[in-house]
What we know:
By secondary structure, this protein is mainly beta. The protein is 6% helix and 47% strand. The strands form ten sheets. It has a 19-stranded mixed beta sheet that branches. An eleven-stranded mixed beta sheet has the order 11-10-12-15-18-21-24-27-30-33-36. It has a ten-stranded mixed beta sheet with strand order 13-16-19-22-25-28-31-34-38-37, with no helix packed on it.
Amino acid sequence: MKKITKIRIKYILISICLFIVFATILPTFMRYNASVTAYVAGDAKETRSSTYTVIFHSNGGTGQMNNLPITYGVPTNLTKNTFTNSNYNFAGWNTQADGQGTSYVDEQSMNLTSYITGNEINLYATWTQKAAVVNGTYFDTLQQAINSVQASENEVTVTLLKNVSETLTIGEGKNIYLNLQNFTVSNNGNTNVISNSGTLRISNGTISSSASTNGAVNNNAGAKMYITGGSIISTGGRQALYNNGGTVEISGNASLSATTTERPAVTNNTVGSKMTITGGTIVSTGQSGIENKGVLTIGTKDGTYNSDALEIKGKKYGVTSTTSYSFYDGIIKGITNPINDLAKITSKEDHTGVIFTSADAEGYKSAILDDNFIDITFNANGGDVSETTRTIYVGDSIGTLPTTTRVGHIFNGWFTAKNGGEEVTSSYSPSSDITIFAHWTARNVVQYNNNVYPSVKEALKQVPNNTKTVLTILENTSEAISIPQGKNIVLDLNGNTISNYGGNFAVIKNEGVLEIINGNVQSNVYNGAIDNEPTGTLKISGVRVTITTDRQAVYNNGGYVEITDNSYLEASPNGIRTGDPIGRATVQNMNGGTMLITGGTIIASSQQAIGNSATLTLGEKDGDPSSVPVIIGADYGILNAGTLNYYDGIIKGINDAISGNIDDEDQDLVKVNGTETINNTEYKTLHLEQP
């Protein structure tokens, strides 16, 4: 009985041991089995995998990565990422493409300790935006992008791609456009956000400083900065902008502000600092808007005042300045006063004064420019005037009146109305903007067909084409006369003088057929007296033509010219025009022109009397030297570079009578060379005599 009992106890112990062994081994066995079948509530069956495949997705990147097999309960390191994304940095993996799932770092160990549905695990690459881009190259930090720019005169764009917190330095020689793209650059520690020693242009976006002992932007000595947009903000203890000996221009919709009670929003420090503000806003809620110790220009001097162009606003003063500065546009506001010293504004828009307005609802007084002047318009009423507008201060007299001329008219004075009105003198003091008018009386200058006209121009309008017509000058006149093609005019000066009328125009320009007789043509402007164009035929008979500047009495530009009888032509040309085949002369025959001189006197006080590069005939080929033109030049009587036919005339020149060849001459006469002293100067002479 005892033996049986011992056997039973032995078997019971063996059974307990076997149960413990199977309870331990069976789950492990099932775990490593390819699949197991589990029974759940309601007798539903679910098949679970013990081996899985990790699939890597680039999620916007580029490249290929092999799948990674992984076994339930066995720790496995993820494959090192090989995907790339040009403008992003790899940040790890996530079980969801939007990054809202479970995250893993690169090469992290994955150990599945609970079953998941299916046999695939999808991991998506996650990316972080790089900071900046320069010419298609992306950089992890904005400073790295700036450092990549080489020193150059040409501007290079550095584009910000996200908000960053950095300390930025722009080195000497760099020329950078920092396009913030509506992102923000803020302090990285208790430092300036930007320290510029090169050339920097900033737009869009925000530069923000919360540092207690440094401002947002420093512009160093010799540096240049252009702020064309965006915001620069200081909420710490210093300025939004500190210009320490450099050059700064603020324009567009740029906004600079500071909340500190210690410093202004903008400091233009030291005598060498230069700052120009043509747009934007500058605001300090704790101190002055601008503190200036250098050269400061507010607005643009363009003859107009635009109060909306810009605003400078300070809790104490809008502008505090120890040096003189210019104020042309905008509004300056301050609670204590807009500016600390009115006398420091030494330049402002013409005819304006700086006035202070009373405090607004917030307690700010404003400094603005006030129009305090009158505009005067001079209407020449058909003539020409030396000054069309003038501006004077209210209460001032009009002063010396401008000169005005009108061909064929006598000036009668300035008046307050086109017809009638009050006569205006230099002491006249208008009370508001005004136009004053020149009054005229028509002259009887030219007679044609028993009618009189105030000018040759008006008479020519009545002359028919291709009909020889006499125009008689009745009194001295100043006019620029132009004879068009088709007209055949005899201009009888009737003993009077025609002179230049304003501008550098010849007195007479001929493109038709023109004979000038009996009078004077005089020019004293930077042009000739008479120009004969390629289509022109010109005859000068018994006329005195004089010019006192460095141009010609007659310039034949390819047409036909005849000078005869007792005509007298004199000029005092100065210098030789570069590139001309001949120098300046009293009479010039150019560009294929033809000129016949059978009488009169031609004199040049310097250079030559006649310059010829076309065809010139002096005298008539008749064997009788009785019709004798006289040619006297300071250098040469005639400087010939064309064809010269010499049949009659006396020619004199200091260097020689003629420079160049004679192509034809009267064989019935002989040339006689000699000398003659004129005004203590010896001239070489040439004339013709009977043999």
